Amino acid sequence: MTKVQISGTGLYTPKEILTNDELVESYNNFVDEFNLENKDKIDKGEIDELQKSNTEFIEKASGVKSRYVQNKSGILDTKFMRPRLRERSESELSNLAEMGVAAAKQAIKNANISTDKIDAVIVACSNLERPYPAIAIEIQNALNINGFAFDMNVACSSATFGIQTIFDMIKSGSIRSALMVNPEICSGHLNFKDRDCHFIFGDVATAVIIEEFDEKSNGPNTYEILGTKLYTEFSNNIRNNYGFLNSSSPEGVDQPDKLFHQNGRQVFKEVVPKVASLIKDHLETNNIKVIDIKAMYLHQANENMNRLISKYILGEEATRDFAPIVLDEYANTSSAGSIIAFHKHNQSLKENDLAIICSFGAGYSIGNVIVRKIS
Ligand code: COA
Fold first, then answer.
1. Is the pTM of the predicted complex or chain greater than 0.90?
2. How far is CA 69 from CA 190, 293, 298, in A?
3. Is residue 195 within 6 Å of ligand 1 at its C-beta?
4. What is the spatial distance between Cα 65 and Cα 56, in angstroms, rounded to a whole number?
5. Is 156 a catalytic residue?
6. Distance 58 CA to ligand 1 centre (A)
7. Ligand 1 centroid to 226 CA: how many Å?
8. Domain harbouring 271, CATH code
9. Is residue 128 in some structural domain?
10. CA of 43 to the centre of ligand 1 (A)
11. How many domains does the structure of the chain reveal?
12. Would you say residue 120 lies in a domain?
């Protein structure tokens, strides 16, 4: 039976760093301006006075210390509060394609594969820049890749769902190899005016080369995919109602529900046990004991959440070597988070070591991938 391997990963990190202190200072200036402008309405009890944010809360509640963003000045401008990205002509690469190509080139180099050996490209991410043509086809074109390409979106779980899609296509024989790209400009869907979540996200792109297992052409850092498991269950607790029908209901245009919004407490409570039991079930059906796992590359949304998931699985808190954290530096980068953790920390694994890559998020959606280090 055909075996499948991850032969290389890539990471594009934006140049601009945005710290919690900078974000909180700008948010608090916005609060002062808002409360002053709306003093009459607040005094009459028509609207609530906005409360200030603070760095200590953010770090304690989430573990996030900073994030990388595609544009910082627009986010910090209290009259704009979103990344300012120039309009691009149709002859230029789109924002997502550009960062995706950068991550993809690194993954291709690390996998030591030539682009004529890649049969497909999948862009798997939370927010697509346009409906069509697919960003994946744009990246396919930019990298001179044959075959086919398409976009898919399963929010924060897009990457693991992308890996299973490619794994199944390779197993079925329809392709021999594929490039998956996860470009995430999460700052574009984040409501920087919302105290409860203005600190959550960052921007990044990751890429993964997945191909038929080939002992002879293995690079120095390859991983057999032993199995994948996906799960979804409808929930309104994480939602974004932005879409192509918005202008048909003009009363809703630019309302806060057209950006990311969540019931964070509820998400925390409901998702943690589901993730832990999916991982345990998946290991069990593959006859793998928890004790045989050497690392868990978990989705990077909240450090406390990851701690609790590890505790449910291991019976004790995981060390940072066992369950690496990158959200302190990158914040939540949606689909890319667990791939960043894998990319930056998999060097500690030795031959035959087993590990998991797990994502979870809106939908709800959960995806788990079990890998074995080949070489
Ligand atoms: N600064 C200071 N205080 C803040 C604040 C801020 N920016 N935001 C909220 N608070 C306050 C709240 O008003 C609340 O005060 P109260 O107790 O007086 O009502 C208190 O802090 C606790 O707020 P809460 O929203 O319950 O915080 P939390 O501990 O649940 O942490 C999240 C919030 C979002 C960090 C956390 O729930 C989380 O990460 N959940 C999982 C979300 C997730 O993974 N989503 C997937 C995204 S893809």
1. yes
2. 12, 33, 22
3. yes
4. 10
5. yes
6. 8
7. 37
8. 3.40.47.10
9. no
10. 27
11. 1
12. no
